[in-house]
Design goal:
- With 140 residues, the chain is mostly helical.
- The protein has a domain at 2-78.
- The chain is 55% helix and 0% strand.
- The protein is built from 6 helices and no strands.
- It has helices at residues 2-25, 30-39, 43-46, 54-78, 115-124, 132-135.
Length: 140
C-alpha cells in the first residue's frame, strides 16, 4: 500500500511540474488586449478565442491527471489501516528473571545500649526510602 501511495505522489508532482512548464510556455490573452485597443482589432478582445492548440490541450490533460492523483491520495489517506497496538507491543519479551532484581535492604537495627546513643543515631540517620510511594512523586 505504501508503494502505491509513493507512486501516486510522484505522478502528482510530475503533473504539477508539467502544468507549470506548459502554462509558462503559452501565449497569454493579456498580450492581445493591448493590440486590440491600438490596432482596431476589437473583435479579439471579447470575441471567440478560436480552437485550442497543442499546449492548451496538454495543459488540460496534465490538470486532469493532477486532480485524479489528488483524489486518489485523499482516498488512500482516509482508508489507511491503523496499527492496533502501540510501540511497546513490538519489543521482544524480557529475558531477565524477576529474582535477579535486588530487593531494597532493610535498615539496620542497633542494639539499645543506651537510650541517648540510640536517640542520637535515629536523629542523625535519615530514614531509608523503602517503597515506590515517594519515588514516583514529582518534587515541588
Amino acid at each position: 500500500m505504501n508503494t502505491v501511495f509513493n507512486i501516486i505522489v510522484i505522478v502528482q508532482v510530475l503533473s504539477a511540474l508539467t502544468i507549470i512548464g506548459l502554462v509558462l510556455l503559452q501565449h497569454g490573452k493579456g498580450a492581445d488586449m493591448g493590440a486590440a485597443f491600438g490596432s482596431g482589432a476589437s473583435g479579439s478582445l471579447f470575441g471567440a478565442t478560436g480552437s485550442s492548440n497543442f499546449l492548451s490541450k496538454s495543459t488540460g490533460l496534465a490538470a486532469a491527471i493532477f486532480f485524479i492523483a489528488t483524489l486518489a491520495l485523499v482516498y488512500l489517506g482516509n482508508h489507511r489501516t491503523v496499527a492496533s497496538g502501540g510501540v511497546m507491543d513490538n519489543l521482544p519479551a524480557a529475558s531477565a528473571p524477576a529474582a535477579a532484581i535486588p530487593a531494597p535492604a532493610a535498615a539496620p537495627v542497633a542494639a539499645p545500649a543506651t537510650a541517648s546513643a540510640s536517640a542520637s543515631a535515629a536523629v542523625s540517620a535519615p530514614a531509608p526510602s523503602t517503597g515506590s510511594a515517594q519515588s514516583n512523586q514529582i518534587p515541588k
